[in-house]
Amino acid sequence: MSRSGGGLPVVLFSPGFSSPRSVGTAVVEDLASQGYVVVSIDHTYEAAQVEFPGGRVERSKFPPKPTQDAMNKAVEVRVADSRFVLDQLARLDRGHNPDAGRRPLPAGLRGGLDLSRVGMLGHSMGGAAAAQVVLDDQRVDAGVNLDGGHRGAVAQTGLAKPFLQVAAEQHTRASDPTWQSLWDRSKGWKRELRFTGAQHYSFTDAEALAPQLTGLPEEAMRALIGTIDPGRAVAAQRAYAAAFFNPLLKGRGTPLFDGPSSRYPEVKLIP
Residue 1: inside a domain, yes or no? Predict the structure, then answer.
């Protein structure tokens, strides 16, 4: 682990409901390449399967059609998971090692995290969890919600910290009262972006992987990832995620949120 620039800022990633932590790789690997330590979280008993050291596999405990109460509880558990992960990162940074195989820490990891600079990024339910963690945990400075409806107190209290909402084309404040409520009540820096032609799963690795599948009908493809060009969609997601976190966690300014971008015309800044 490189230590040439001191401790590295940290970004947590939480995937959508029942999804594995790997579904956001296209965006989080780009953040990692820019000098962030990105920690992706599997939410045990909600994700389809989670493998633990030693080979133990825990599968989802959710029924095919979970109730709203169950979904609300899932967000609460995700918030607790995320805060637990931050606790464990603090232990790692002090040199403690929870590795089940008792392997040594990677070189440079001890003291290599700057936990005074922490953000959180999430898709769908992961975005809802990100908003609630930003509210609940003073260690988290800013958050990004990729097309998720909000659950929990944050929709009613709003946020005093920076927060970015990223929407598929049909997801608006008018169609989602939780977005409108959060927007109206948030006093911190806030922006909302809409990706023209995007669907809900455009903000996952499905955007990059689905076009490579053979035999997937065009109609099914459009329902999954919309009509936005996959390469441009991934490039824009990477650009805006970095543009959001860089000023807040690295002190590097960007003009990308100042107005429409000729480089990413598919992305609309919603006033």
Answer: no
User: Can you name the residues that pair with 37 across neighbouring β-strands?
Assistant: 10
The SS3 of residue 265 is coil
Tell me the mean pLDDT in the region 197-211. Answer: 96
The DSSP bridge partners found for residue 270 are: 192
> What is the domain range of residue 168?
8-270
* Locus of tokens 């659950």: 151
Does residue 198 sit within a domain? yes
User: Is 16 in contact with 204 (CB distance < 8 Å)?
Assistant: yes
**What CATH number has the domain bearing residue 66?**
3.40.50.1820
Residue 147, pLDDT score: 97
| 126, 189, 140, 28 alpha-carbon torsion, rounded to 10° | 50
pLDDT at 108: 84
The string of pLDDT tens digits covering residues 73-91 is 999 999 999 999 999 999 9
Q: What is the pLDDT of residues 108-124, one digit of tens each?
A: 889 999 999 999 999 99
Query: Domain total for the chain?
Result: 1
The answer to whether residues 130 and 110 touch, using CB atoms and an 8 Å cutoff, is: no
The rounded distance, in Å, linking the Cα atoms of 271 and 269 is: 6
- Chain Cα centroid distance, residue 14: 5
Answer yes or no: is 128 within a domain: yes
DSSP SS3 for 55: coil
The residue type found at 265 is: P
Task: Check: CB of residue 147 under 8 Å from CB of residue 171.
Answer: yes
Within-domain flag for 236: yes
Label the pairing between strands 267-270 and 163-168: unpaired
pTM for the whole thing? 0.95
